[in-house]
Amino acid sequence: MGSPADAAGAPAGQRPALCLPEPTGPCPAGTTSLWLTDTSRPDPWAAGAVARELMVSLWYPAATPEGRPAPYMTAAESELQLASRSITGIPPDALSTVETNAVSSATPAGQQRSLPLVVLSPGFTSPRSTLTALAEDLASHGYVVAGIDHTYESFATVFPDGRVTTCLAREARRRGSGSQEKVAAGRAADVSFVLGELTGAHPAWPAAGLIDPSRIAMAGHSAGGAAAIAAMLADPRIRAGIDMDGATVAPIPDHGLSRPFLFLGKQSNYTPGSGSAVTTPRDWKLLRGAVSTWERDWELLTGWKRWLVVAGAVHASFTDFGLLADQAGMDIGAGLSGARSLDITRAYVRAFFDQHLLGRPQALLDQPSPRYPEVTFCSP
User: Fold this and answer.
1) Closest CA to 217 of 195, 201, 240, 196
2) Phi-psi region for residue 365, left (φ > 0), alpha (ψ -120 to 50) or beta?
3) Element containing residue 157 per DSSP (H, E)
4) Is 34 inside any structural domain?
5) Which residue from 80, 98, 271, 355 lies 20 to 30 Å from 259 (Cα-Cα)?
6) Are the CB atoms for 295 and 271 separated by under 8 Å?
């Protein structure tokens, strides 16, 4: 579902059963949404918009598992996401029926200033909901997670007043006026603004006092992963970062970036030196464009770092879409099931944050594990 695909799925009128795996942690998860407005800057994509509006989902440990699970996305968002990806083999509202695990507006649990905060940034054209399975899992282990919809960079974002914004940034990039650098810089600004709204003197979330402002990190997929480095360079509050399958764009200064960083990508595009075996100019450009950015940045990451690749993964494997595509009967070309790839993503992402935000050393990050033979440690 991360890209247009043939949907050889359910017969017409038959709705596939779509659901996210249960979180693995001891805490029930809650969730809520925030509508935030940054009046300090105009929107980078919408001409005439004098402020930047964002929708943010929060996931967090809840006091009780009782309540109604939150919707995955609205029917309008589902229809636009599927249509924009030319996916027609499932009902247009199918993504709005995905069964989640976090309880809507559940009472948060935790002591004041005790919970680490992780920001999640989705891929270009994708909504914040595509990282829900990862967010729910982190919340069940005691994290507050803020998933950001980068307005006009998703195929669809619905605001509480009924407006539905579309992917203006994609049109701008087609006209040559929306560079990858602009996306990364804009997302870095979005992240810094959201951090201020959650940890500042007048927080936008009533339970924001639970967040420990000294323990903040970020992970992203694709453009969101690329934005993790941009955000870390712009905001020292972000102590650690993860790039999941995203070619990076923000240049790291010559003095380097000393905070912990994890590259987690598909083996086909992100194995060091993988461009050398490619024969066609187009494939060489695609592969080297991905790998070379990580190779360039690796030398300038001067703190704790790891470079992991996953055999059989495709771009969508690090998101919910790999799993949901499997459930819908769609073949996205992965050699790894969506359920397995989510298990791997959850395990390594949480291990990274447990080690660098909670101070709990993780053997999983030190060497290959027999539990996850698909994961290779790279040493460029």
Assistant:
1) 240
2) alpha
3) strand 157-158
4) yes
5) 271
6) no
